Amino acid sequence: MEQIRPAQLDEWLAQHADQNPLVLDVREPWELQTASVKPEGFELLNIPMQQIPASLNLLDEDRAIACLCHHGMRSMQVAVFLERQGYSQVSNLTGGIDLWTAERDPSVPRY
Prior knowledge:
This protein is α/β, with parallel strands linked by helices. It has helices at residues 9-15, 29-34, 73-84, 96-103, and strands at residues 2-4, 22-25, 43-46, 65-68, 90-93.
């Protein structure tokens, strides 16, 4: 499983440009209201972690997907789950939105 830091996202997006890369935010709705990333140069989709199994039809198995959560633990669990379901291009955004604030966009609130 590829681990990428928010600071490495642009490089990851460039590497997967031909696969229409997706950032999959697996946080809860209240978390999105508290802090959210701006989808600049990528598509952003929110599916809370608990809804992932029932929402697999929304995700292309061959698409590059980088999973995001608060600190990187839930997103890692989702990424492992997706790999086990046959998704071949899954990565985890290490440090989650908390590290995103530190490395990419300090305007995103920390919580």
